[in-house]
Structures are given as C-alpha cells and as structure tokens.
Amino acid sequence: MDFVQSFRLAAPEVLFSLSGLLLLLGAAWSRSDAGARIITWLAVAVLAVAAGLTAPALFSGAKGAGTLAFSGLFAATAFAAFAKLLIFAAAGASLLVAPAFFQRIGAYRPEYPVLVLFAVLGMCLMVSATNLLTLYIGLELNSLAAYVFAAFLRTDDRSAEAGLKYFVLGSLASGILLFGTSLTYGFAGMIDFAGIAAALDGKISTGAIFGLVFVFAGLAFKVSAVPFHMWTPDVYEGAPTPVTTFFASAPKVAALALTVIVAMTAFGNQAAAWQPIVIFAALASIIVGALGAIGQTNLKRLLAYSSINNVGFLLIGLAAATPKGIAAMLVYLVIYVAMTIGGFVALLMFKDADGEPVEDLRDIAGLSRHRKLLAAGFAMIMFSLAGIPPLFGFWGKFVVFQAAVEAGMVPLAAIGIAASVIGAFYYLKVVKVMYFDEPAMKVTGKSDWVHQSLLAVCALLISPAGYLLTKCLDGLSLSAVAALITP
User: Fold this and answer.
1) Which of 67, 74, 270, 440 is 20 to 30 A from 57, alpha carbon to alpha carbon?
2) Cα→Cα distances 443→80, 303, 319, 413, Å
C-alpha cells in the first residue's frame, strides 16, 4: 500500500520518466522536422498533464507526513507544487519557441524536447528533496541535460564554448556542493533534512559551519548569485536563445526553491549562521548585476546581468528568514518568470529580413517607428524589470523589501532600493534607444503566432492587470510556505 501511495504522490515524476523514455524511442525513429515538432508538442502536452496532477497539492495546502513518499526520500508538499507549476510553465514556454529558431538553420532535433523533460524531472526531484541524496540526484540530472543544451548548436563556436564553460564551472560547483554535503553528513550524522536540523540544534560546530558554507556556495552557482555568477553572461550569450530562455527561468526557479528548502529545513535552526551569507550574496548580486549591465551592448548579456540583479532581490526575501519573506520570494518568482520569458521571447522576435537573430542594442534603434507592438511589449518588460509602477514588477520588489523591513533589516532594504535605482538606468537606456534614436531598420523579420501569443500573455501578466492576481498569489504563497516550515 505504501508503494502505491508513493507512486501516487510522485505521479508527475513517474509521468516524466515514462514519457521521456517513450519520446526518446520516437526520436530515434523520427528524424524529420515534422517529427521533431510533433515530439515537441507532445512534450508540452506532458507538461500540461503534469501540471494538472500537481495543482491539487498546492490548492489543498498539502503538508505533513501524508506528503512523504519512498520512505521519506520525496515530499509532495504545497511548496514543491508551487515551484513545480512555475517550472512547468517556464519549460513549456521555452519549448514552444524552440522549433522556429532551430529549424531556420536546420539544427532542430527531436532529442531537444526529450532532454527538456528529463531536465524538468531533475528539477522536480530538487524541489521535492527531503535529504542530501535526493537533492544531489535531482541537481545532477538537471545539470547534465543543461550542459548538452548549451552546446546544442554543434556547428556554432559560441555554443560549443558556452557548453564547455558551463560544464567545467558546473562540475566545479557540483564538487563544492558535494563536499559541503559530505561535511554536513559527517558532523550531523544524518542525510535527511529533518535529522540534520535536529542534530545541528543549539551551538553549531566549526566543521558543520564549513559544510553549511560549501553547500550554500554550490547552490549560489546554480542560481548565478555573486560571486559565483561568472559563467552566466558568457553562457547566456553563447547558448542558443531558446536555451537561454530555459536557463533563465525554469532551472532558476528550481535552484532558488531548493536553496529555500535547504535553508529553512536542514539549517532552519541555524539561521544566524547562513543569513550573513545570503545577505552578502543578495547585495553583491544586486550591485554587480546593475553595474555589469550598464556597459553591455549585446542584449543577451544585458538580460544575463539582469537575471543576476533579480536573483539579488529574490535573496532578500530569503535573508529575512521569515514565512512572510519566503512568501514574498515566491510572489516575486512568479513575476520574474513572466518578465524573463517575455524578455527572451521578444529577443527571439528581433530578427532581420533573412531570419537572422538581431542581438545588438544598436540594431533595435528606432524600433518603435516600424514595429510598434513589439517595441511596446519589450518596453513594458524593461519598465517592469526596473520595478517602475504601475507595472507588476514593482509589486515583486515591494513585497520583498517590505518583508525585509518587517524582519528588522532596514539597512538591507535601503541598500537594495538604492541599487535598484542604478539598475533602472540600463533598462531605461534600452527604451530610449527603441523610442528616441534614429531607426536602424534591422528588425524587419516576421514572427509566428506562438511568439506573438507568448509575448502578449507575458505583457498582460506584468501589466497593471497583474495586480488582480495579488490576493490569489499571496494566499497560495503563504500556504506553500506553511507547508514547508510546518513539521
């Protein structure tokens, strides 16, 4: 009976495993563009079914012993469900925009959507992890697929370089994380998060502190937080744009959710030990992300620094170490995914008459004169990323700053607000180039209905209409956090 219950709780993960294997067989037999598109749409359908299987756990506020599966190795809580639904949405959007980009150069392969499913499976294991073993298996399953994604364009030197850099630095980060988990196990004598929390209650030893530091360092790489951000601009620029869209959204959600789980459960009794690490990473990411983006002319590199900057704001919610702070972080994550997907979809729509990507800031000069709707959509995303009201991006920053102030971290909130003003400079610079510079007339290529629809949906979500969701988001995020921190 327990075996059946475990499979019921892990139904989305079982679905990804079986469908991934079946679609992999299909990919072996179908090498045509039409076959690759069919497998892509089937993968999107699998994500939709998985979302339907996951949603009840979120809306019911699932928590406690009834959510544990496979002898406590896996937890199907409301918090995990919240993160999974965001991951599914981001992965689905990234899949939808991929065929048009790759088929233009004859490089699309049916293995691509299959790899996405296995990467999502790894992310699901990450956000449902209850011990160090599940954590590492999920993380590596996601990472191994990501290394292939970055180097997917084998004939493109930039893509090959991005894949190599990501693999080398990712392997280093995995080693750091594994070393930290081994130290934690050595000094706590347990691998499950609840057992670690009980063992590390009270005064923490120096060895356990080293383990904690190495674990957070490994996770900081996965979320591209400073000072472990160095791979992000190069990989984002070199990887194919649909892959960059995926990297900036779904794995970021999974890694941030995993960081929250580790901090609030495994090391929940030692918040004083990890809060300084998170505060430093938050402030450094905000400042380095803002300053690093100012001199960028490549739009993908600019959005890479923007993602580093946003990770800093997200970590402010974790630094508060309160239920309201974590809930604010989840709300910001929803808005961040909408802004990120919208930004990269708009970037995919920037192409010349031959369909070649347009990635340089100077090439979108005067875009508003001949592509009014595209320029307006990208401008909305820039304003929202800058946190300018009444766009919904403002609300994300507001709730994390409010949580920090209520937790008594007024200096942290003040510095974050000041640094966000610096970040507004390069977002406004992009808008200025599109609306006030002389037209470059480079962006003349047409996009299909999928790109146009996704950009419209993202623009709607980050518009003032998004505030209609605040009550629902607040309720769901607080319910998810209650499921995380309640024994």
Assistant:
1) 270
2) 41, 19, 42, 40
Q: What percent of the chain has pLDDT over 90?
A: 38
| Overall size of the chain counted in residues | 487
Closest by Cα among 290, 326, 325 to 305: 290
Q: Which amino acid belongs to residue 295?
A: G
Only one residue has tokens 């979120």, namely 58
DSSP annotation of 195 = H
Query: What is the C-alpha to C-alpha distance for residues 380 and 267, in angstroms, rounded to an integer?
Result: 39
180-215, pLDDT tens digit by residue?
999 999 988 888 888 888 888 877 888 889 988 999
Mean pLDDT, rounded, for 321-336:
92
Containing H/E element for 382? helix 372-386
Residues 6+ apart with CB under 8 A from 479: 58, 61, 78
Indicate yes or no: pTM above 0.90.
yes
Cβ burial of 295 (10 Å; 0-12, 13-18, 19+) is exposed
CA separation (Å) from 46 to 57, 79, 114, 120, 223?
Answer: 18, 21, 11, 11, 26
Contact of 376 with 368, CB cutoff 8 Å: yes
CA–CA separation, 364 and 239 (whole Å):
21
CA gap 412, 118 in Å, rounded: 38
| Residues 320-359 as b or e (16 or more Cβ within 10 Å = b) | bbbbbbbbbbbbbbbbbbbbbbbbbbbbbbbbeeeeebbb
Q: Classify 224 as helix, strand or coil.
A: coil
Count the Cβ atoms, other than its own, within 10 Å of residue 463.
14
Mean of the per-residue pLDDT values for the chain?
88
Cα–Cα distance, 318 to 322 (Å, whole number): 8
Q: What is the DSSP string of 16-62?
A: HHHHHHHHHHHHHH--SHHHHHHHHHHHHHHHHHHHHHHHHHHHTT-
State mean pLDDT over 246-258.
Answer: 92
Yes or no: say if 90 and 249 are a contact pair by the CB < 8 Å rule: yes
Does the CA dihedral 4-8-12-18 come out positive or negative? positive
Query: pLDDT tens digit string along 32-45?
Result: 777 888 899 999 99
pLDDT at site 1: 42
* Cα gap 304→233, rounded to integer Å: 5
Amino acid at 477: S
Question: Residue 486 has what pLDDT?
Answer: 60
